[in-house]
Amino acid sequence: MNIMVIEENWVLKETREQDLDRVLEIEGKEENLAYVYNWSRSQHLDTMNNRDQKHLCLWDPTEERIMGYMILAGMQSPHESLELMRITIDEKGEGYGKEAIRWVKNFCFDTLGYHRLWLDVFTNNHKAISIYRQLGFTEEGILRDCKKYGDSYRSMMLFSILEGEYKEHANS
Ligand SMILES: CC(C)(COP(=O)(O)OP(=O)(O)OC[C@H]1O[C@@H](n2cnc3c(N)ncnc32)[C@H](O)[C@@H]1OP(=O)(O)O)[C@@H](O)C(=O)NCCC(=O)NCCS
Fold first, then answer.
1. Pair 162, 116: CB distance under 8 Å
2. Backbone phi, then psi, for 146, in 5-degree steps?
3. Tally of structural domains, the chain
4. Radius of gyration of the chain from its Cα atoms, rounded to whole angstroms
5. What is the tens place of the pLDDT at every residue in 127-159?
6. Residue 169 above 90 pLDDT?
7. How does DSSP assign 129-164, residue by residue?
8. The N-acetyltransferase domain covers which part of the protein (predicted)?
9. Residue 89: CB within 6 Å of ligand 1?
10. Residue 92 is part of a domain; what is its CATH number?
11. Ligand 1, atom 25: closest residue by C-alpha
12. Which residues constitute the domain of residue 73?
């Protein structure tokens, strides 16, 4: 399945190798490093070549500038469960993050016909957590101290939305 979505304010396309410089630039910004992992080019390439995953870039409508990227996992899930593995938006606060996550919900439940969409998020990522709640995700719990950063540990929250809940929140 090749993904290509054209909306009024953005275009979503599969990431190409030549897009990775910009992806790495966005990922490496300090404001993003606090909340997403810092991968190498080859880790991103592995994801692009993994049939279970989708590496997507969000472009401006003229397709001149990459505004962010997302990684989805579980494209071949026997459990009909899709993971929003990563989302990073460079042009923050303009509504692109919310729009992109709304698209992921539609894609998961309407296009793939899946049962579950889930993600994990660092407990101090208040902005992302607020967006997931607004978009109808339910908190499943906290993985306490699950990630080691230098000498300290960080916790992550799990969020999910199921197909019935998606239908209830169809307009959010
Ligand atoms: C999280 C992220 C994807 C959101 O994308 P975005 O385009 O900046 O977000 P949007 O403009 O769509 O929406 C922002 C919403 O968060 C709210 N918000 C902003 N700062 C907030 C804060 N500190 N606490 C709670 N809510 C906050 C805004 O009010 C807005 O909601 P509104 O539309 O009701 O006003 C983006 O900021 C990002 O890439 N962050 C770094 C990487 C990251 O955290 N990724 C998610 C990992 S799980």
1. yes
2. -85, -15
3. 1
4. 16
5. 999 999 999 999 999 999 999 999 999 999 999
6. no
7. HHHHHHTT-EEEEEEEEEEEETTEEEEEEEEEEEHH
8. 10-160
9. yes
10. 3.40.630.30
11. 127
12. 4-168
> Is the torsion defined by CA of 89, 94, 96, 98 positive or negative?
positive
- Check if 92 has its Cβ closer than 6 Å to any atom of ligand 1: yes
Query: Does the Cβ of 121 fall within 6 Å of ligand 1?
Result: yes
| Cα 136 to averaged position of ligand 1 atoms, centre (Å) | 15
Section 52-58 average pLDDT: 98
Nearest to 89 by CA among 65, 110, 107, 112: 65
Nearest-angstrom CA–CA distance, 99 and 8: 11
How many whole angstroms separate alpha carbon 132 and alpha carbon 9?
Answer: 21
Q: Is 27 helix (H, G, I), strand (E, B) or coil?
A: helix
When the pLDDT of each residue in the chain is averaged and rounded to a whole number, the result is: 96
Q: Residue length, the chain?
A: 172
* Residue 57 burial (CB count, 10 A): 21
Distance CA 83, CA 87 (A): 11
| Each residue's pLDDT tens digit, 75-120 | 999 999 999 999 999 999 999 999 999 999 999 999 999 999 999 9
